[in-house]
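Reviewers asked in the last cycle whether our approach scales beyond single polypeptides. To address this, we selected a multi-component target totalling 812 residues and predicted its structure end to end. The input consisted of the following lines:
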Amino acid sequence: MPLHFRALPAVVLLALSATGCASAGGRASPAAPVGIAAMKHTPADAQFMSGMIHHHAQAVLIAKWAPTHGAGADLQRFAERVVVAQADEIVTMQSWLRDKGEPVPDATPGPMRMKMAGIEHDMLMPGMLTEADLKQLDAARGVAFDTLFLTFMIRHHEGALDMVETLFAAAGAGQDETVFRFASDVFADQTTEIRVMQQMLDARHAKR
Amino acid sequence: MSLASRSPRRVLRAAALLALTAGCARNTQTPPNAAPVRDQRVGLKAGLRDAGEAISNLGMMSTTMSPPGFAGVTNSDLAFSGKYAIQGNYNGFMIWDISNPSRPSLVKSYLCPASQSDVSVYKNLMFVSAEGLTGRTDCGTQGVQDSVSTVRVRGIRVFDITDMTNPKYVGNVQTCRGSHTHTVVEDPKDRENVYVYISGSAGVRSPTELPGCANSNPDNDPSSSLFRIEVIQVPLARPQDAKVINTARIFEGLTGVTRHADPVDSAAAARAAARPDGGAAPARPARAGANMRGGGPTQCHDITVYPAVGLAGGACGGYGLLLDISDVKNPVRIDAAADSNFAFWHSATFNNDGTKILFSDEWGGGTQPRCRATDKPEWGADAIFTIENRKLKFHSYYKIPAPQTALENCVAHNGSLIPIPGRDVMVQGWYQGGISVFDWSNPAKPFEMAYHDRGPVDGTKAVSGGSWSVYWYNGAIVSSEIARGLDVFELKPSEFISQNEIDAAKTVHFSELNAQGQPKMVWPPSFALARAYVDQLERSKCMSADRIASVRSTLSATEKGNSASRQTTLNALSTQLAGEAASSCDADRMRKLADAVKNLSVTS
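The resulting structure, written as structure tokens, was:
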């Protein structure tokens, strides 16, 4: 097909002023936030988002090992999806915390620094791998890596589900639209992924 | 497997392109000599009201911001009744009169917060999904702070919309997991009730908030709220008495479904399946709730019913399900598909013949950017299946071909068929990937025909926006834009589609439409219909140029001629065409043309 460069100016640019935009129901002036737009977040919401950043960061860390640790093809595909999905979700959580004026943790794959009764201490989120777990997994290769990865990651995902359930059990939590939707998505996605991981694990056990 | 979005033909397309900054109701004009350039959707300027736009083979008829109280809050799904489009919003719903698509007018905005406020209609009734924790029985805007509360609504709100300017809140049906989406289905054998299938995968409510809810393993507790869909019966005479009448366990025995695109180790799979537990046993110590978490989908996200063929497509967690709904109250699973390229099966659309089904994968729940250049074309896409002997057979994926930025949430989402006769054409929303019109007549090679896209809502951070859903309704393409309101488009003729095909599509009229309840499209006799088939035979080169010219000339003459000679001529033409069908390379379409011509003679 020939290129007609002279036709390029046919890309028309129209600049319309927004003030000319009388629509049937709306006025241009922004109204005060109402309903869902006005919901306040709670400390439980902020703690969930902060804790989940570290939780996700660890999932990304170990999922990135799949190609270098001789994981099976199906597990490598799965792990690649985990890396993409959870790295993006970390951005979502950090962005939400920033918008709400809350401290924004770096995506470090370790414990979360928490303040309880005025004393700061480090705490691993539910289902996260300990240093010893990480060492064991990092040393494994091939089917041994797969089995260990799946076992740890199922536990890791179940920890995420626990975090969602803890969030929704807290008074006033999840009223914020982003938090509700995000936490619900984590619940649905990771429930589905646990199923997928179990199938992969079953297939490996059956081989023995 | 064909990855449609990799087709260079469609990336380098001589499409008519128009880049516009956002305005309101406007007329657009297609430039006569657009050149093949890189996809115009790439690099669009960001902005809520003044984003850069790219449009191809569509005309934008209007874009209308949501009214105060709704603007800035997520717009969700659409339903249609008569001349009205009803648009859900996390703060309630809006009713638009779209009889003038260039200037939709707001008839009613109803403040009654609930996410995600997906809407459906049935005659004088409207149903609204409530899933989030903020919905209240009194429509209050203050949310529900208590984790257990009797004022919370999670389930279905029922409205009487006899008077569109004054909808009446009739009642609620509370369900254990709330309603993320729902599906209205009519039982032809039952004129006194209408039915609603509830979908939703949020957490189970406390039995203190809603008695009978149980977050338990159904193996031990038959009353578990998991692994089931609720079937609600709505008495038409007393909609306030709507209630759950069945909890169909359509997920039972969902083991051993081979996932498409997985490396298959059939020997291992067979060994696993041969185990007494069917290979589904958890390979770790049991703990509270553990089995149900790994035991498959505990709910559907969305169910699309197609009553005309007695089937439904359930998009349920990691599975796409084919359901038999001939007994509306008792949907039964007849097949299931899984796919390791699919994260979360979101929704389903049948083709009009009921021989194909398209499932979409809403990977990331619609809040994540899944259309970047680095995101694989088979991830967060549509999967196209044929239905053969009531089994699902995979053919290909479809994803919009233009990469989007990391600031734009983008993944396959809601759409509907466009009634182009003889073809399977669909329009679909891709959030901030915009809307895409594509042909999936050949299930192995879907291709894009038209699109509209805007730049990101915000140029500095990811802010949710884009087309939540877009549906063809009686000639207009109506899109619910999450952040920007209501967009209305018209389809324009192009190298992919003729004016006759569009005119024929416009002859199909519905009195109401819920995309989750697919109506059978039937084309009334029209010259446009016959000409549409002729245009398609010209495109497929299955009719000679001479024959095409003579058929067109006969159609034109008869359209102008008097009715007596018209009938005779059309009958004769129909008979000839039917006779020629056998030797045509597109026999089926020739027969459709012959029928269309015959029907013209009957009605003229």
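Chain A touches chain B through 86 residues (CB under 8 Å). We regard this as preliminary and will revisit it once experimental data from Aim 1 are available.
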